Structure formats: structure tokens, C-alpha cells
Amino acid sequence: MRTDALFKEKTVFSFEIFPPRRTAPVETIYHTLERLKGQRPDFISVTLGAGGTGNNLSTADIAQKIQEEQFLPSVAHLPAVNFSKNEVITILDELKQKKVENILALRGDILPDKEPKKDFVYANDLITFIHEQGKFNIIGACYPETHSDAASSVEDIQNLKRKVDAGTNQLITQLFFDNHYFYTFKEKCEIAGIDIPIQAGIMPVVNKKQIERMVKMSNVTLPTKFLKMMERYEHNPEAIRDAGIAYAINQIVDLVAQGADGIHLYTMNNPYVAQKIREATRSLFEA
Ligand code: FAD
């Protein structure tokens, strides 16, 4: 099932998971999925590392299994910067064969030790290519606090419009911890004529290391109340986990009440946290 059709019916709630790290057996993700089974999100997306090696190559298999065993639509992420056109064609053929029809089409991060291939320089190049095939529902990434490579927020929105015009049907945002950025971003999108559904990406923080890594990798502001929470509970794993869950729930309640098209929860493969958040907010998505 195409995930873009869901937005016509409801406020959408989805999970994001990642294939196990290189050294872990791929089966570990199936245990995680089993524990997430009762939560019935509207879809589950599966990441693919821009390096494209090891268990990363199991993205299509995991996406297929979600559809066949949980009867939920799945989304396969596809960062193309390190793939040639022929490699992308092979991946698209595999997804078609596995009946995975939703793709989050990405440029991917430029890795310091890897020279990017030249076939897909920006996500809009990949989106144009996939769109020409006419077989997939295409999803794009967007950045309420501006992508870290962009010269300005104005240019970033212009580039986002290019992606939408190339054939994107829905968008998912980078994580953010201050909803104000999301609301301002939505206004800018409206002005730019971007009128497809935008899901807000929410990441529950469960430890300080995780957030430090995230902030290093992306352009994300940590509000004072969030920093205070981290400082107060950083040495108490249970308290920081519970505070992170409560913070994410508060963000979601506000976003849904203000009319967001949907929420995309970065589960970090943590079924306990995903379940707590889903249970606390489920009725908001049914209202
Ligand atoms: P683009 O849309 O190409 O944008 C990248 C930069 O180039 C931006 O600064 C933009 O303003 C600029 N730009 C875009 N188009 C043009 C143009 N035509 N001309 C000039 N400048 C342009 N990474 C992974 O490796 N695997 C994943 O599974 C993954 N999942 C993600 C899921 C979500 C929801 C999000 C938000 C990000 C995800 N990422 C993932 C990270 C993503 O790959 C990086 O943020 C990457 O740096 C940018 O990808 P993009 O598709 O947004 O790039």
C-alpha cells in the first residue's frame, strides 16, 4: 500500500527502525519488530546507511517482512550518493520484486573517507530518476532547522521545492526538540508552494551520548528546558529515559493539536520507549 494515501484519511503515525549494526546478527531486528507488533503504526520505515555495506543491505528484506508478517506498509530508505545508476536500478528491481512500493529517496551524508559517486548528486536527481519509472511512492527528507550544508534557509527551501516538483508525494522532517521550528518551517513551505503532507520527526532521547552524537551530526537546537532535563538526570538511566519519553509525548500532543499531518517516531530500535509513547498518544491519532 502507498503511504501517501493514508494522509487523506487521518493524522499518520509511523515508526523508523534501522538494520542491526554490522557485527550484530540481522535476526535481532526481527525480535525488535516482534515486540513492536502490537503497536500498529500506520507504516514502518527502514533505514539504509549511506555506506551501503554489511547488514545495511538487508533493508529490502526487512521492509518485505514487515509487509508480509505485520500487514503494514513499509518504506525503504535509499541514500544514493554512494551508488551508481546501475546499483540503484538493482535496488529498485529488488524492491519491486519484494512489493515494497514506498521509498524515502535521499542524497545521504557525504562520508569523509568515501568519494561520492556522480550519478545522484542531490536527492532531486534520484527522485527524478525514480519518478520516471512510475512505480513508487516517493518520500523526501526535510529540515525545520535548515540542512547543515545549506547556505541559507531560503536556499534550503528552494531546494526542497525542487525535490517536491521532481515527484515527491510526502515529506518527513529531521528530528527537532522545539516545535516552534516546525511551525515556522511549515509556514515557509506554504509560502514556497510546498503543499504535500509533512510528518514531524520525533526522537525520544534516552541517554546523553545519543543526543551528543545527534547534535554533532545535524543542525539541531537543544532548548534550555531540554538541556536542564539532561543535566539533572544524566547519571540516572531510568530517570533520563522516562524524562525523554515524557518530553517526546509533550511534543507530539502539541504537534497533533496544532494540526500536523503526522508524526514519525525515530524508535532507535528501542521497543520499550516506542511502546510507551505509542500507548500514551494512540487516542490522539484516532480522534
Ligand atoms: P538533499 O535534498 O540533496 O539536500 C542536501 C543539501 O543539498 C541541502 O543542503 C540542500 O539545500 C542542498 N541541495 C539539495 N538539492 C540541491 C540542488 N539541486 N542544488 C544545490 N543544492 C541542493 N541518511 C542515510 O544515509 N540513510 C538513511 O536511511 C537516512 N534516513 C533519513 C531519514 C530522514 C527522515 C531524514 C530527515 C534524514 C535521513 N538521512 C539518512 C540523512 C540524510 O541522508 C542526510 O541528511 C543528507 O545529508 C541529506 O539528504 P537529503 O536527501 O535531504 O539531501
UniProtKB/TrEMBL annotation:
It comes from the Bacteria. The keyword Ribosomal protein does not apply. Keywords: Amino-acid biosynthesis, FAD, Flavoprotein, Methionine biosynthesis, NAD, Oxidoreductase. Its EC number is 1.5.1.54. The keyword Flavoprotein applies. It catalyses: (6S)-5-methyl-5,6,7,8-tetrahydrofolate + NAD(+) = (6R)-5,10-methylene-5,6,7,8-tetrahydrofolate + NADH + H(+). Pathway: One-carbon metabolism; tetrahydrofolate interconversion; Amino-acid biosynthesis; L-methionine biosynthesis via de novo pathway. It holds the Pfam family MTHFR. Its cofactor is FAD. InterPro entries: FAD-linked_oxidoreductase-like, Mehydrof_redctse-like, MTHF_reductase_bac. Belongs to the methylenetetrahydrofolate reductase family. NCBIfam families: fadh2. This is Methylenetetrahydrofolate reductase. The gene is metF.
